Amino acid sequence: MTPARTALPRARGNAGPGKRAAWKRTPLHDTGASPAGRLRAMTALLASATSVDVGLIVTFIGIGVLVNIFVVLIAIQIRGERQQNQAYLTKPDRTRRV
Q1: For residue 4, which of 22, 23, 26 has the smallest C-alpha distance?
Q2: Residues 48, 50, 56, 61: is their CA dihedral positive or negative?
């Protein structure tokens, strides 16, 4: 398998007349594999990338749902405690004394 791009020599002075071909780049699409082989490899990579993406999406949506559930539970708890405090303060024998 040929690399997608060839490395350039470190200094331009290293390339003599016979090394002129080293400056040329190989085509980016030339892998030497048949089109069917490239398609199978791309399909496998796409399936792997898709499964990772779906897993990350599910994870972060799940975290968001859990956080929202906790926020709602905290709001319900705060409202209930406030109602209890209001009921306690409105009893005739529990009024505030100034």
Answers
A1: 26
A2: negative
Residue 4 makes CB contacts below 8 A (sequence gap 6+) with 26, 28
Q: pLDDT 10s per residue in the chain (98 long)? A: 555 555 555 555 555 555 555 555 555 556 666 777 777 778 888 888 888 999 999 999 999 999 999 999 999 999 999 999 999 988 877 655 65
- How many Cβ atoms sit within 10 Å of the Cβ of residue 1? 6
Note the pTM of the prediction, 2 decimals. Answer: 0.47
Using CA atoms, how far apart are residues 34 and 46, in angstroms rounded to an integer? 18
